[in-house]
Amino acid sequence: MTYRSFNRWLAGAALALAAGLGLAGSAAADDDMTFALISHAVPGDTFWDIERKGAETAARQLGADLIYAHHPAAGQQATLVQNVINQGVDGIALTLSHPDAMRGVIAKADAAGIPVIGLNSGLNEWQSTKVFAYIGQDPVVAGAAFGDRLNTTDAKHVLCVNHEQGNVSLARRCEGIEDTFDGKVSTLYVNGQNMTSVRSRLLAKLQQDPSIDYVATLGAPYAMTAVRAIRMSGRPVSLTTFDLNSRVISAIERGKIRWAVDQQPFLQGYLAIESLWLKATNGNVIGGGQAVLTGPSFVTAENVDQIAAFAKRGTR
Amino acid sequence: MSDTMTEQDNTARAPGWGQRLAALIKRPEIGSVGGAILVFVLFFVLAEPFRSLASFSTVLYQSAALGIPAVAVALLMIGGEFDLSAGVAVTTSSLAASMFAMQVAGNVWVGVGFALILSLAIGALNGYLLIKTGLHSFLVTLSTFLMLQGLNLAVTKLVTGNVATGDISTLSGFDSARAVFSSYFMIFGMSVSIIVFYWLAFVVIATWILLRTRIGNWIFAVGGQGESARAVGVPLNKVKIGLFMGVGFAAWFMGMHLLFDYVTVQSGEGVGNELLYIAQAVVGGCLLTGGYGSAIGAAIGGFIFGMTTQGIIYAGWDPQWFMFFVGVMLLLATVFNAWIRRQATRG
């Protein structure tokens, strides 16, 4: 068995398994289109679950099949893309958090006549690759909007809590806040896969620097841990966050979190698959050469009621 | 084993202080005590916020959170085996308790019981596979580590439709379970987590088992000379399976703390912690080859680690360099630790 045929066999086995578990939906008929969503998600990240639901919803509505695969390491993600090229899918949506590592496989897909769309990360790099469009939030724009909003409060010193050191778009959110916020911005790195350390390190930072009066977490699960850390510090620190989940929404309702910035992951996944379908069936190109932005949209005490119902079913 | 004997011999001859001191500095954990003092003094001098009691309680919390599984891992390592699945096994236990309570039982205590049985079963499975396959525990538990990691993600998605568990704080029994696994006490004006006391209790129990019971003798024996221990009648298989179940129990306990303190659990958590547990045991004097080590040492190893990760933040060092500083401090503590141990055993 050659490597490639083994690969194909493996992909086939994986598909059969997915179909067996009821994840891939209805059995593929010959004329059905198949799209792939390949992300850099860390396993178990709630944010990516919503992104995937958006893509699945679009695929279902279009009567298409969706293959979802992810790996946080650049090389592995490129291998996943190569796999779906070998399978001959009709379009690929992929995240460009490691744009240089993706350049080669994107060119291969292009040569094979498979349209590729970028989503979620890679705002500054997508135009230099062969993806035909890009859907996402500009982390700098989101960070800047965050900073502008902080200027309307009495905030003087904001702590930006980054749960994944080395992730470009998370770092840019903090930089965006620095660009527009008039006060001081500090950064704290925590290990997102170990909640006790997230809380201990945040608490330590609050104890170490008494001038911090606002905390900005970069992911929803970490905001809930920050609520606890702030309470344990016994200090009047306000909490704000990027991204949403149902517990963040209820914390906004209870006034524990001032606001959350939503980049609408469902919309990203949904639009990416829709755009691939339109490109494949009608030659349409979305965005006119510019990125299609899905955020930032602010969730505050004023509008939280409308969004709560959607978050409860796991789509916001 | 040899320690109990020396002490019995000594009581017959009513030892002087000199002999007792000599026996004390030959303990496996003596080096780590030196390492802990070094790290403590360093941060006490360099980091002003480190000196406050509130900071100390945060250090203790972080040490206990890593230290509870490390106590069981230390016993296992003295018995000559590794467990790479311990980090994700903690997450498995909290996920199982949460989902079982939510989907099946409606009461969190039933979920807690279910998770305990599951965690002990995972430990027993590790031990059983080890004995049946005859492979090194490094490979066996690496396999179970990967399987558990996959199961955590897949089963959570299958059961809840999401990648994190739901909010269990409204289920019956939540308040009493939270009181048991994650309450806080005010002591000298600092808020101390209950897991710090459990951690100390586990260390005492593990030390008692190691030094004062027949099981303790067996653990040292199977780790030191496995086959000859079996030849003199030590139930090697039972001891090893029991040690893996001990790790399962500690994983369950830590999992329950995470669940009731943080309410929801993300299914990808816990990866990487298994190496920290092993590192603490080794810093505390356990040999990678088995047959030698102590539970107190593992606790001191946990304390060194807790002081380091927190101390770097209290010192206000550049956050970009955080992981590098952790590595440097750990290396420093371990080198100092080995040097003290050499001095002690030479004398």
Task: Report what the structure shows.
The complex is a heterodimer of chains A (316) and B (347). With 316 residues, chain A is an alpha/beta fold. Chain A has two domains: 3-136 and 265-285, Rossmann fold (3-Layer(aba) Sandwich); 139-262 and 301-312, Response regulator (Rossmann fold, 3-Layer(aba) Sandwich). Helices cover 47% and strands 17% of the residues of chain A. Chain A contains eleven helices and twelve strands. Chain A has helices spanning 3-20, 46-62, 74-86, 99-111, 139-151, 168-180, 195-208, 220-233, 246-253, 265-282, 304-312, and strands at residues 34-39, 65-70, 91-95, 116-119, 134-136, 157-162, 184-189, 214-217, 238-242, 259-262, 292-293, 297-300. In chain A, the strands form two sheets. Chain A has a six-stranded parallel sheet with strand order 2-1-3-4-5-11, sandwiched between helices. Chain A is elongated. The model of chain A is unreliable at 1-6 and 15-30 (pLDDT under 50). With 347 residues, chain B is an all-alpha fold. Mean pLDDT of chain B is 88; it is low at 1-12. Chain B is 76% helix and 2% strand. Chain B has one domain (31-338): ABC transporter involved in vitamin B12 uptake, BtuC (Orthogonal Bundle). In chain B, strand 1 and strand 2 form a beta hairpin.
